[in-house]
């Protein structure tokens, strides 16, 4: 019987070799792909229990991990939760949003740029520590933007974005209503899940960063794009005479569109500057109709429409200028109505491009990535996305916008002692909702340091008091002052 | 005079000390890792474990001095490690407020009973050939034990498998004892009928196929296996019993033809099971695409969590107390290897697989050197049980083969399994003691007289 016993021995050897090979495959070769599975709670818990890096604004850590005495070892805390929530996002056991998500690898310490730090941690047997992220945000501008939106009556829904025109740095980004990320970072996961559910079902959408995630008709602020397209066409300049009057009859239609205030813009023929100053609907309806869909769409896309530009934050919505509009729609698009929609960030980029001689800079939120020992690992370099308009066009538009602030609809943004360029917008919305109030501006006009876009989606203001200038102007002004006076 | 085996009891003692270092060291490491301090009952626990091992060792010295010196230390190390891992799970289960958090304590009680039966087996059974007398008794007992769970009042269904009986408040898996009984029965039957099974038959192509009338036993065993599968919903045991029978049949008859017949039968059975038993189909699908059934119910949550845990453990593991083995349902029984993989890593899993490999190797070596056919078959059968069981359960947990419910010998929580496996080791030691013992001298005592007889000069004139 010994021969079959030897055969059985070989068979058993094969079985055990198979076990050894398979366990090696599972625990060594396949381990990484198992770790990457989003359902792997072990990885989530391990990441959750790590000393996560801080998110810094100026010198202050607005998000950091402090030791806690439960099993997760660290508690994420946010020092100014409501004000910065749209940027930082939250860090919960279930998921992350905002910078917490986009910079997760750095903050968790997994980023390849932190390789040396990880190696040292491993050799010295200390717990791994995440890297820090320095934001571009100017605390004074952020404070001003937050205070402005917070001061609006009632439960205002709105957003403010401020950019540095020459670089694209995001100086302020605020959205209301918002949420407290400290509640999401809680270790009481049941409560966190419940909170998530509750806020997701909230009709006011507090989890949405309106500055980048909400697209609405930009209204009269879009007249800047129409004007830019007109001047770029070569047929117009700031002093060209353009149509004015009480009403504009849409092409292929009997519908007529009046001016916002019901007036005649100061005559049947007015200068382009005057048209922008009084925000003359008739002028820009006819200009858009004359330029056509292609030219308008090209200009809008040059400013960044139909794409997203900010790479540092998740949850961006694309601002749209559809190319398949018919003639009446195209005409309406000239005043930022019909199918044209934009985020506050997009309108800030339009203002910033005009301020920056027509160069559209890629907006960014993350300034520097630093190792736990604060040495700088990486710094974001400003990059240009496109040349939206020529330098001379930019100059003419700037003059027109300065006039609009100095003696036009945008006068609430005036700052004594320096020239401010601005444009209001009041967009019609569907049904019985109050209109959206917009305001875009930059200052100082001769050496722009800041471009701002303000959107007030709804507030407890009576509909006839809503106007981009009255609601948004003061907010834009205070943000610009905060940047200029720093 | 040929080769004589040495007793090697000193070597066994040395290896047992190493095994105790593993068991008690792991227990201390659990305390340090989970609670941050050396467990308060370390001395008492260590003392108890040492007492059990020493008792087993002394027994072997007294009644089986020539027994294999490696088996007992291997088993002691595995059992000690298993206890420590159970203790580690207990601490977490207790912290999570679960009712069942005394697995380690119960397992230690079962281990004590196991060692007592180990000693009793060695002391009472001085010659394994005695068992051959009980061939049919053992066979009948085995079948009866398998049927027990179906009887009213005593039989119980736990977690979908009807393999438990409940007597006086204790639950017991009679199948674990049945497998030892069946090995004895197979060995006794086959050693008697091997010639008939081996010699008759015809040759088809290159394979000697057995006669139709000799197919009786194999068909009976096949029937029992399928009964277990269909009625008890226990894929693992079914596979184990049939595989065991095939291996023993092959060794007894030396004819691969039986393997062909058995393999075909098994293939047909597996196909039928796959087609008609939903449970089998599920397990097959979970094995092929575990990630697709994670959220389903019934689904592959358990397997996937085990895979996640082992992957996370990596080469050297997370360390006791730093993993989340409690995420895997039944981490204390069928999935104990995934707990070890998560917290002690690939290194420990490989060490465990090698320990089992060595146990099987020793069993087959005992079979090779055993002088009687019954001993050979007994040793092969017991070795095959360990090999098949380990392959099926570790292969299932690591995703090599479809998952089937079986305990990991000596590691998993489970009284019946632990006690039965200690008896398995006792039987192996008994066979090896017989095999390694110097052969009795058969020569006549008075050599000189005989010599003078044969060298007598015969005078021829």
From TrEMBL, chain A:
Transmembrane segments: none annotated. InterPro entries: Beta-lactam/transpept (IPR050515), Beta-lactam/transpept-like (IPR012338), PBPA_dimer (IPR054120), PCN-bd_Tpept (IPR001460). Residues 52-133 form the Penicillin binding protein A dimerisation domain. It comes from the Bacteria. Residues 158-481 form the Penicillin-binding protein transpeptidase domain. Pfam families: PBP_dimer_2, Transpeptidase. PANTHER family: PENICILLIN-BINDING PROTEIN 4B (PTHR30627:SF24), PEPTIDOGLYCAN D,D-TRANSPEPTIDASE (PTHR30627). This is Penicillin-binding protein. It comes from Nocardioides flavus.
């Amino acid at each position: 019987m010994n021969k079959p016993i030897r055969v059985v021995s070989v068979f058993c050897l094969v079985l055990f070799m198979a076990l050894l090979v398979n366990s090696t495959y599972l625990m060594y070769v396949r381990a990484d792909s198992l770790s990457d599975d989003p359902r792997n709670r072990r990885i989530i818990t391990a990441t959750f229990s790590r000393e996560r890096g801080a998110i810094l604004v100026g010198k202050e850590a607005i998000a950091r991990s402090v030791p806690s005495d439960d099993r997760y070892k660290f508690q994420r805390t946010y020092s100014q939760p409501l004000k910065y929530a749209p940027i930082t996002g939250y860090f919960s056991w279930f998921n992350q949003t905002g910078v917490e998500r986009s910079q997760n690898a750095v903050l968790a310490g997994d980023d390849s740029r932190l390789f040396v730090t990880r190696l040292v941690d491993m050799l010295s047997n200390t717990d791994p520590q995440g890297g820090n992220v320095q934001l571009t945000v100017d605390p004074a501008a952020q404070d001003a933007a937050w205070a402005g939106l917070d001061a609006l009556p009632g439960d205002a829904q709105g957003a403010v974005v401020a950019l540095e025109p020459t670089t694209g740095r995001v100086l302020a980004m605020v959205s209301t209503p918002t949420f407290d990320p400290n509640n999401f970072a809680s270790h009481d996961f049941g409560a966190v899940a419940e909170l998530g559910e509750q806020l997701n079902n909230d009709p006011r959408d507090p989890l949405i960063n309106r500055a980048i995630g909400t697209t609405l008709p930009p209204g009269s602020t879009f007249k800047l794009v129409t004007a830019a397209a007109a001047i770029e066409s070569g047929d117009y300049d700031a002093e060209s005479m353009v149509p004015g009057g009480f009403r504009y009859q849409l092409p292929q239609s009997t519908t007529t569109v009046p001016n916002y205030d019901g007036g005649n813009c100061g005559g049947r023929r007015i200068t382009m500057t005057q048209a922008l100053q009084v925000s003359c609907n008739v002028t820009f309806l006819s200009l858009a109709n004359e330029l056509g869909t292609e030219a308008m769409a090209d200009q809008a896309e040059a400013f960044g429409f139909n794409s997203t530009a900010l790479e540092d934050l998740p949850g961006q919505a694309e601002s749209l200028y559809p190319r398949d509009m018919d003639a009446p729609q195209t005409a309406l698009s000239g005043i930022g109505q019909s199918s044209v929609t934009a985020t506050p960030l997009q309108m800030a980029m339009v203002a910033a491009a005009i301020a920056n001689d027509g160069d559209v800079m890629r907006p960014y939120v993350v300034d520097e990535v630093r190792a736990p020992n604060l040495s700088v690992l990486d710094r974001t370099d400003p990059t240009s996305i496109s040349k939206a308009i020529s330098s001379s066009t930019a100059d003419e538009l700037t003059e027109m916008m300065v006039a609009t602030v100095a003696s036009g609809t945008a006068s609430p943004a005036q700052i004594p002692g320096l020239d401010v360029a601005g444009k209001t917008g009041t967009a019609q919305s569907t049904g019985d909702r109050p209109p959206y109030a917009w305001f875009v501006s930059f200052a100082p006009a001769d050496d722009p340091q800041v471009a701002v876009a303000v959107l007030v989606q709804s507030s407890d203001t009576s509909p006839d008091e809503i106007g981009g200038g009255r609601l948004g102007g003061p907010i834009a002004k205070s943000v610009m002052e905060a940047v200029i006076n720093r | 005079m040929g080769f004589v085996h040495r007793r090697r009891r000193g070597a066994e003692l040395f290896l047992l000390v190493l095994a105790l270092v593993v068991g008690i060291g792991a227990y201390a490491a659990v305390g340090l890792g989970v609670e941050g301090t050396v467990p308060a009952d370390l001395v008492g626990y260590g003392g108890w474990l040492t007492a059990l091992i020493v008792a087993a060792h002394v027994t072997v010295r007294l009644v089986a001095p020539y027994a294999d010196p490696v088996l007992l230390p291997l088993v002691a190390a595995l059992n000690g490690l298993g206890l420590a891992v159970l203790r580690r799970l207990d601490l977490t289960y207790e912290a999570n407020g679960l009712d069942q958090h005394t697995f380690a304590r119960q397992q230690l009680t079962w281990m004590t009973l196991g060692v007592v039966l180990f000693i009793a087996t060695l002391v009472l059974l001085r010659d394994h050939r005695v068992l051959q007398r009980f061939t049919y008794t053992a066979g009948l007992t085995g079948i009866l034990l398998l049927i027990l769970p179906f009887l009213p009042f005593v039989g119980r269904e736990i977690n979908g498998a009807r393999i438990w009986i409940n007597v006086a408040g204790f639950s017991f898996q009679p199948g674990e004892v049945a497998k030892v009984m069946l090995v004895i029965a197979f060995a006794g039957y086959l050693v008697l009928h091997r010639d008939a099974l081996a010699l008759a038959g015809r040759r088809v192509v290159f394979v000697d196929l057995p006669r139709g009338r000799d197919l009786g036993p194999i068909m009976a065993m096949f029937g029992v296996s399928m009964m277990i599968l269909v009625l008890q919903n226990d894929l693992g045991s079914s596979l184990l019993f049939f595989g065991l029978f095939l291996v023993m049949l092959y060794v007894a008859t030396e004819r691969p033809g039986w393997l062909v017949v058995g393999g075909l039968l098994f293939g047909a059975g597996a196909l039928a099971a796959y087609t008609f038993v939903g449970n089998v189909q599920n397990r097959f699908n979970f094995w092929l695409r575990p990630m697709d059934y994670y959220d389903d119910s019934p689904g592959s949550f358990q397997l996937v969590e085990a895979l996640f845990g082992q992957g996370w453990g990596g080469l050297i593991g997370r360390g006791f107390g730093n993993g989340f083995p409690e995420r895997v349902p039944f981490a204390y029984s069928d999935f104990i290897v995934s707990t070890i993989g998560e917290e002690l890593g690939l290194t420990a899993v490989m060490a465990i697989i090698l320990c089992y490999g060595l146990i099987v190797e020793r069993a087959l070596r005992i079979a090779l050197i055993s002088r009687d056919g019954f001993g050979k078959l007994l040793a092969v059968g017991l070795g095959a049980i360990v090999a098949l069981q380990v392959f099926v359960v570790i292969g299932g947990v690591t995703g090599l083969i479809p998952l089937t419910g079986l305990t990991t010998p000596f590691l998993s929580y489970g009284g019946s399994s632990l006690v039965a496996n200690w008896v398995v080791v006792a039987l192996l030691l008994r066979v090896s003691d017989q095999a390694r013992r110097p052969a009795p001298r058969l020569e006549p005592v008075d050599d000189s007289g005989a010599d003078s007889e044969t060298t007598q000069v015969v005078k021829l004139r």
